[in-house]
Amino acid sequence: MKIIGVVPARMAASRFPGKPLYPIHGRPMLEHVFLRAQMYKGWNKLVMATCDEEIEQFSKSKGFPVVMTGSHHTRALDRVAEAVERLGEPVDASDIVVCVQGDEPMMRPDMIDAVIAPLLKDPSIAGTILAMHITEKSIWQNPDTVKLIHNAAGEVLYTSRVPLPYCKGEFSADLMARRIYGIFAFRWKYLQAFTAHEETRLEQLEACDSNRILDMSFRQHIAPYPHIQSFSVDSPSDIALVEEHMLSDHYWNLYR
Fold first, then answer.
1. Phi, then psi, of 255 in degrees rounded to 5
2. In angstroms, rounded to a whole number, what is the distance separating the alpha carbons of residues 219 and 17?
3. pTM of the model
4. Number of DSSP helices (H) and strands (E) in the chain, helices first
C-alpha cells in the first residue's frame, strides 16, 4: 500500500489573495507547510499541486516536486485528485492519498500519522479528517473555523462554520467541540468517486467539501487530536498570530 501526500495551493484565495507565498518569518507559507510535511517518514511520494506559475516556479526553486492542475477547481480535494492522476504512475484503489492544506504552516508530522491510522485499522473507512479539540470560545464562534459533529463511532455527521454543538450558545471545553484541521486522508478509490461527483447543496451552503463526502454516504471518520497552539492562515490578520506562536514551536527550530 502506497501513501501519497499532496499539498494543494492556489494564489486566488478569496479571503487572502496570494497567501501561499506570503512570508512568515521570512519564508513563504508554503515552504513551512512542505518542509513540515516532509518530516513524516512514511511517504512514498509527496508533491505540491497548483494551477499557478508563481507557485510552480517557487516549488522548483526549492526542489519540491510539483504537479500542475487545472484552474477550475474550487475545492482542494478536487485539485488533489487531479494531481494524483497526473503523477504518471499507477495508483491502486486501496492506496492512501493525504491532503495537507497549504494554509497550515504550524502542522506537525504526527498529525499525518493520526489521519492515516484509522484507514490502516479498518478497510471499510473511506476517509479521515483531523479533528482538533476546541478549548476557546473565540475559535468555536469564528466562521473561518469549520466545526464538525460526529457520532459515538467517530463517523462525521456534519460540518459547518457556525458554532457546533449549539448548546444554547454557551461554550465550555466540556462540550468536546472539534474543528477541522486541514489534513485529510482517503483511499484512492473513494477520492476518485468524490471528484467525479458534482458539488452538493450542503457543500455549497457551508463552503466545505466534507459535506459532499457526507452527501455521498461515505464513511468519513475523525482522527482525534488534542488541542495545541496551532493556527491556520485564513486572513492577513492570522500571520502575526502564527509568527508569535511559531517562535516557541519545536518544528520551526528544526529548519529555521
1. -135, 5
2. 33
3. 0.94
4. 10, 11
